[in-house]
Amino acid sequence: MQQKKSLDNPRFYYISFAIIVVARLLLNAVIPLMDKTEARYANIARIMAETGNWVTPQIDNGIPFWAKPPLSTWLSAISIKLLGVNEFAVRFPSFVISILLLLLIRPIAKRLNIKLIIPAFILFTVPEFLLHVGVVSTDMTLLLSMTCIMIAFWEGINDGRSYWKYLFFVAIGVGFLAKGPIVIVLTAPPIFVWAVLFGNFKKIFTAFPWILGILLVLIIAVPWYYLAEQKTPGFLDYFFVGEHYKRFFDSSWKGDKYGFPKIQPLGIIWVFLLGLTIPWLIFVIFKIVKLKKLIFKDQWLVYLLFWIIWTPIFFTTSKSLIHTYVLPTSVPIALFIATFWNDIKNKKAYVYTAMILPALSVILIFISFIPGVFSKFSNTDKYVLQNQKVKPLYYLGEKTYSSQFYSNGKVISIDEENLSKKSLTKEKFNILINKRDSNIVKNYNFLTKTGEGKKSLIYTTK
Known about the structure:
By secondary structure, the chain is α/β, with parallel strands linked by helices. 61% of the residues lie in helices and 6% in strands.
């Protein structure tokens, strides 16, 4: 009985939420940037902050990065300007976005007559969301724009205040700067289906300022796309055709400039969805099965339901995807749970299960103080670069993104032919060599190993 009362007391959720937030912020500071994805985006932001080129994100100095629009890079670059070149700085915008999301769902919580801490607690215990509160990527900016679109639309229809109606279009424009037209693909269909089911088309067309709104979208989004194409011709074709069609629907696509298609089993998105939203998605499923007639008569619940399921439906036939594609479902799942919060009978099971990942985060903080744990098991070149004397730094073959970030861009790629030529000079330098290529070191007796990480070895000239 005492446990049940504690779970009905908002204080429990305030304390739990505070612990989760502090733990996540500490982890953002101590966990190194991992290759490839996170270190890549962090290094792109570092280059932007260093060069002052705010139009063209660069994957390396002078090499444009066409895969994504610049919003997340802008935010991380600004954070670097304010906080320096470090892990916490590049991850901080993701945390700020997570707080902005709570502000967005505040009117919904008020409408549901529950405290904001409830959907906040649920959202921060969704595994995929908690992970992204501390990850450098474009996914959080996409989530922010999508959430803003969906909530502004709902409030614009039901609240009547004009700022929601304009915010709806602002969010679309921001979405184009966050990740491109995918923001329309992932938000328009659930709104359309909801409107069809409840006959709300007339209300939609009369409630929103469509002409001014579309103009607002263009004013926000078009200038950057125009400047990006002018600076680096070919961007628009690669971005719209390659990244937004072939990337998702052609697993044999060879045009990816920055990686390779992630070939996954058909329908894997549903496995990601279930595994990375536990335990809350289970409640959603049980509730739909138990109260399907009631739910499908309720406009709000149907709206949330289509918001949840459309993203995985869209990606069901795609074989080129990663787990982050389920992130857009986290907010509507949290809102769906919050809608039924006061009626949940087995709340203890859901809450305590949801606290497992945050508890592991706290444990990970303590583990981080054990010497050598991160350096031995982290897929990064951060630790192998520590305590190295200032010399020219090379990487044999393709340099890693983490080596670029942690060397402040000083690392230079070098091939075996040019490394052999170095043996004829008296130049003093350090060189990173991937462990898979370490067997070739025996050909260079002028090198001495001075450090070792999980993926790379570092040598210096004798």
